[in-house]
Amino acid sequence: MELPQRKIIHVDMDAFYASVEQMDFPELRGKPLAVGGGERGVVAAASYEARKFGVRSAMPSKIAKEKCPQLIFVKPRFSRYKEISQQIRTIFFDYTDLVEPLSLDEAYLDVTENKKNIDSANDLAREIRKRIFDEVGLTASAGISVNKFLAKVASDINKPNGQKTIHPSKISEFLENLKIEKFYGIGKVTANKMHTMHIFNGADLKRKSLEELISLFGKSGGYYYNVVRGIHNGEVKANRIQKSVAVERTFSEDLSDDLQIKERLEALSLELEERLEKKNILGKSLTLKIKYKDFSQYTRSKTQEDFYSSSKEFYQTALQLWQARPYNKAIRLLGLSFSNLNTEEKKQISVQLKIPFEEFQ
């Protein structure tokens, strides 16, 4: 299959929240730092100094402190992160109008045709990263290739403060040598499952037929079959409307203790609140996702007329959904997600406002 020869850049800020805090408060520079946390919270972001100790985002603060006793916790300042994010996006729009933000700290840019008329996407990415550093004061990493999947994978290769280009002539070689857990869209649980099937890199995955992969992984099997061949035709969408926000956690050991479950639900509720605040999103439908040790899955939702407002409310609803579950088996994964978001209402309002003007043209 002939690949569309677009030029896509994925820009990913380096430890964004933590880097903003270290920029604004010089006394924090060079120190292990966690944004978020608190007595029973979860880490929203960790500085690279903290990551050396194994501290990661979404990690319970208690575990983070055990891994790094000198860890400094700071409260998140989402208004400040949004302000910085807007400065960065302004730079992006100097190069192209085809910008698809994924969150405050990362975005896709389609620079196939760009405002600077620069032919090399690699040179463009380098210039954009330099401008972010000079004008904002933060470092960014970038991935450059012919589609969004490859650009996303590439941006992680030379982090922090680096970039990686996957040239069309090198796609097959790159993907065949890539460890399976580095494929965007293949999580830890799926990667472990693939390891049991002796799939350790792209070359191993490529040996599987489409029928085999669909049989093993369902609908996702078609995605795996395509991306290992460098096929991903998703366009950069400048007006991307988010329809759901989710957090979930896979546990290293199956959980059956009710108190442990409640603690995990509370931590997920806090993490979900932070993620919603970060994106200025509200939701009316809360869904609890449970995956049992036998890999069977159960979901249950509750929708209300008004938007949910706090992690306490998330937790109480999640607890009700948990207690209403039909099976009392040990679990390997818990997740919470919101749908029926205010982003969809904004889209509807925008469409409604357009109609009268179009009628009178």
Automatic annotation (TrEMBL):
GO annotation, biological process: DNA repair; DNA-templated DNA replication; error-prone translesion synthesis; SOS response
EC nos: 2.7.7.7
Catalytic activity entry: DNA(n) + a 2'-deoxyribonucleoside 5'-triphosphate = DNA(n+1) + diphosphate
Binding site for Mg(2+): 12, 105
Cellular localization per UniProt: Cytoplasm
Annotated site residue numbers, Substrate discrimination: 17
GO CC, alphabetical: cytosol
Domain UmuC positions: 8-187
A Pfam family that the UniProt record links to this protein: IMS_HHH
Example of a GO MF term: DNA-directed DNA polymerase activity
Highest taxon, organism lineage: Bacteria
Signal peptide residues on this chain, from the entry's feature table: none
The keyword Cytoplasm is assigned to this record: yes
Catalytic residues as annotated in Swiss-Prot or TrEMBL: 106
Enzyme category, top tier: transferase
Cofactor detail note: Binds 2 magnesium ions per subunit.
Cofactor dependence: Mg(2+)
Keyword annotations from UniProtKB, A to Z: Cytoplasm, DNA damage, DNA repair, DNA replication, DNA-binding, DNA-directed DNA polymerase, Magnesium, Metal-binding, Mutator protein, Nucleotidyltransferase, Transferase
Protein family per UniProt: Belongs to the DNA polymerase type-Y family.
Role played: Poorly processive, error-prone DNA polymerase involved in untargeted mutagenesis. Copies undamaged DNA at stalled replication forks, which arise in vivo from mismatched or misaligned primer ends. These misaligned primers can be extended by PolIV. Exhibits no 3'-5' exonuclease (proofreading) activity. May be involved in translesional synthesis, in conjunction with the beta clamp from PolIII.
Subunit: Monomer.
Name assigned to this protein: DNA polymerase IV
Species: Halpernia frigidisoli
